[in-house]
Amino acid sequence: xxxxxxxxxxxxxxxxxxGPLHLGAEDCLYLNVYKPKDANNDTLLPVxxxxxxxxxxxxxxxxxxxxxxxxxxxxHNVVVVTHNYRLGALGFMALDELKGESPGNSTGNYGxxxxxxxxQWTHDNIRNFGGDPGRVTIFGESAGGFSVMWHLVNEIxxxxxxxxxxxxGTNALPWFFQxxxxxxxxxxxxxxxxGCPQTGEQRLECLRKLPANDLxxxxxxxxxxxxxxxxxDDKMPADIPxxxxxxxxxxxxxxxxxxxxxxxxxxxxxxxxxxxxAKVPLILGSNRDGGNAILAxxxxxxxxxxxxxxTNKTLESIAAWILNNAAQREEAVNSIYDYxxxxxxxxxxPETERxxxxxxxxxxxxxxxxxxxxxxxxxxxxxxxxxxxxxGPLDKYFAAGDFHASELPFVFKxxxxxxxxxxxxxxxxxxxxxxxxxxxxxxxxDPNGCEGANPPGCDKSDDEAPKWPSFMEGSNANGTFYxxxxxxxxxxxxxxxxxxxxEFPSDKRCDFWxxxxxxxxxxxxxxxxxx
Length: 531
What we know:
Blueprint: E1 14-15, E2 22-23, E3 31-34, E4 45-51, H1 70-76, E5 79-83, H2 88-92, H3 96-101, H4 110-125, E6 131-141, H5 143-152, E7 163-167, E8 178-179, H6 180-193, H7 200-209, H8 212-230, E9 256-257, H9 268-273, E10 282-287, H10 292-302, H11 312-322, H12 326-336, H13 350-377, E11 382-387, H14 408-411, H15 427-444, H16 460-463, E12 480-484, E13 489-492, H17 507-515
Parallel strand pairs: 4-5, 4-6, 6-7, 7-10, 8-9, 10-11, 11-12
Antiparallel strand pairs: 1-2, 3-5, 12-13
């Protein structure tokens, strides 16, 4: 078929909180290719393959221009591919009947397999756009970062890329990599609520007859019901979910451990430990205040009467949700995240920042440390970072700080120059640092660049910046991360640093999360009929 490629294709069905409630079309598996004007087949350029985030329920490969990669491609002479993948129940439903339809008995990973199909297309066709199929770097943020982890341990994906960047990714939590029996039980219950038969092909036939929007709204209704029950005075319109669908850690959507090579064989970190991950260099890291993206949604669900405000009760309730072990819950509240440590919060809100740091460490930073250790133990280069640029008044706007995903407009160079008028200092420098390091990694799999294989568009100040060492490079036995902030520097991980000097958490905190027991959670646990 021939169609107009002058604008992005339709996005996949999803529910938003701004604009039309229902967006997208089922015919949505489109991709976008960005290349420099003079790219040709004679001198092939590195390829950067982007996977967007959004909790597996929101987003697309263009995102209202946020992921418009034209400037990234032109500045650094790379070819960039973005794409869409199925979301929500349409992308991650897990049922025995669906397993039976798959040649490999895979289920619950359809959205990730859409990404894989786009990656295969890139491998097969990118040469026609001046891209090098032998130099493909996959990169993604949040759910996109989780997806990068999925591809790193998927046997079919491994031959299709040669380096990876995980921005705010994770590797073990059962909220995001779901046990098959738990995921299946949720979708079986949802099918029954929708009036479909309990088992067999009739259930699939019934589900497939439902309009996609009805299916997605049904899942969102869980969020609405629970939020209304816990917060009866909340003025949120009854028919509009706060996030469009359940978000951390009550997510019913996400990759499922179905035990197949086509899907997910095991918890990703276990596969890495067993030496079954792709043998590629890896950049991984997250934002200093990355926990706040999930705080408001989680508090509204987990803590009746909290009205989004953090108290000691909030941390206790969140610890009860996250941790199986009562002694670990008490340790988290009274020792690991003792309130006294946060009394001098630079954001002016010690209670909120305390919970933010706990969620940040649990979901992003400590899993990153764990993965960097395992990656290095397998003899592979890993480059760990923390994004900590000052964002002016945004740092204190709702105690946001370097909030989740705040780096993205600087990576893609889609930030508005007018952001400087809001007090964000030198946005060009932030963008130059991030996009240049990512592009250098795409060129030669080292964020410091390589002689004779460097992208254009990196200014002299970046050339003179301190080296970004790999995780275990140098004399520090605990490892090293790279601080992406006004003054770039390599920083040793320390066992005892405390807030607010905790751009990366202390070894004490991460050791706690390494041994913590975190159960599977989603909205199913709130149903009276649930076990």
